[in-house]
Write a structure and sequence with these properties.
The structure is a homodimer.
Chain A (H helix, E strand, L loop, with lengths): L1 E6 L3 H12 L4 E4 L6 H5 L14 H14 L4 E2 L3 E7 L2 E6 L4 E9 L20 E2 L2 H4 L7 E6 L5 H10 L2 E6 L11 E3 L6 E4 L3 E8 L2 E6 L2 E5 L5 H4 L5 E2 L2 E2 L12 E3 L10 H24 L1
Parallel strand pairs in A: 1-2, 1-6, 2-3, 6-17, 7-14, 8-9, 8-14, 9-10
Antiparallel strand pairs in A: 4-5, 5-6, 11-12, 12-13, 15-16
Helix pairs in contact in A: 1-7
């Protein structure tokens, strides 16, 4: 069991990792190889102290060098759930991994895109965020896939290999998914409907509402809604509620960066990552002496 | 009148300045040419995201370059008081300057050294932090000067040119002050005594308490006690009390960096500087629309 699991490899997560490393704590940093889309895509950075480069690409490459120098590796799995147990946490991933840690730092950023009406209501009742976790449930059935990033195209293909019919709503450019049983609809769905479980999806076409009958809706996005990730976590206006020590309402669980609210800035995220790592260090000390 | 006055040129103040600049706000940044002793003296920095250099000197030089690039200049005067007026602030300096602003960001770091017993009690009643402000009061009198940094030696000399007798307690190495009317005592005073006003200073010598009769005590240090700087400011365990928006109990007054408490880290200070600048920007917007 590691001391801490950090979820998210944006600047907040990296800041936390660097400080935990300096403090001699063991941890796993979950994220993606390219660190975060938000870093890489930044066109101009001018208010981050100590960074004189121009854009996000240069910043990301600097962070990559720093991670390498400090021998910090990123675990490239997508976290699907965080479970608070007695004085420890279990963290599951889309890839089927299950990890344990004494503490958790949430640094997974703001949820990408608005939620669709009904998305929260039917989560676990036909709505899923994880193709590999729930895909098998839709053998020979009809599904819709709302896909917010090109990076999930292989998951769309996987789903379409199971389901009888896959309606793909791509919310990004340069779609390259093909498949006989895939039908692309370039619209933004407005509502997920059903009774006990999902029965359909509504989307607009030529000023009118169109309805598709489906058995399930997969929403594939980079950052999950916070309350889908951790059950029992207190939120406020869609952000995780924290205090100045980055503590959430769950003991041992901390949150940092965009997930805790505005300003959505590197400097703010870096600061909170640092504070959370210090709070984790103090918490571990307390666990030890108890 | 400027939009904001930032007090302190450590990383917190610089972070705030860079963000205010990016937000198109006018401001004055008070500090010292070398930015801050704390930055320059850092031997090793390993947990500040994006900085791969080794030590504080390299970090400070990077920040200097960034300030230059953004055309931000430091006003090298020492702030002696902040006065909250109606929807604006007046800021006085040891050099005799008086400036006005709509908001203030305190980023002056933690107070250097412990306070001497009686220092707070007799502030303004014989205890002073400012040679140029109060020196003239001690013409032909006896004073003690507790000096915490070599940078104040010219102020010690100035005081000794006014007072009849100056007892210098230097709390640093390589003392180079000389003067016929100066007597050096290499001890740390323990208590300032008096009734309505200061009458003496106590220090230890050979296990015993020694008492000097003096009319005034000057304490020269880089960061003033918070409550000496701003009257009515709410503190907590010696730090300025703020919320997650870096707001203090006084409207329009914000605090960031070490002055708000631990962890005393660059990343934390940078984050708070950024947040404070955003809070200032929102506050100015509100002032405008009221």
């Amino acid at each position: 069991m590691v001391d801490c699991i950090i979820i998210g490899s944006g600047v907040a997560g990296i800041s936390a990792a660097l400080t935990l490393k300096a403090n001699g704590k063991s941890f796993l940093l979950f994220g993606v190889k390219e660190l975060s889309q938000k870093i890489v895509r930044a066109e101009k950075i001018r208010n981050y102290p100590g960074f004189l480069g121009e854009n996000g690409e240069a910043f990301a490459s600097m962070l990559q060098d720093q991670l390498k120098k400090e021998e910090i590796e990123i675990v490239c799995e997508r976290v699907s759930g965080v479970y608070a147990l007695k004085e420890k946490f279990a963290v599951s991933t889309n890839e089927g991994g299950m990890y344990e840690s004494k503490t958790v730092i949430l640094a997974s950023g703001v949820e990408q895109g608005k939620q669709i009406d009904g998305e929260k209501e039917f989560l676990g009742k036909g709505v899923s965020y994880c193709a590999t976790c729930d895909g098998f449930l839709y053998k020979n059935k009809k599904i819709a896939v709302v896909c917010l990033s090109k990076t999930f195209e292989h998951e769309v293909e996987y789903l379409s290999s199971i389901a009888d019919k896959t309606y793909l709503f791509p919310i990004y450019k340069n779609v390259e998914v093909t498949g006989e049983r895939i039908e692309k609809i370039v619209k933004m769905p407005t509502k997920i409907v059903g009774e006990k479980r999902v029965t359909g999806l509504i989307y607009p076409e030529k000023g009118e509402e169109r309805r598709l009958d489906v058995d399930g809706v997969f929403v594939l996005k980079e950052s999950l809604p916070v309350d889908a990730l951790v059950s029992g976590l207190e939120t406020e206006n869609g952000h995780v509620k924290i205090n100045r020590q980055c503590e959430t309402n769950l003991a041992g669980l901390y949150a940092t960066g965009d997930i805790t609210g505005r300003p959505y800035q590197y400097a703010k995220a870096v600061g909170e990552g640092n504070v959370a790592a210090h709070s984790v260090t103090e918490y571990l000390q307390k666990l030890k002496t108890e």
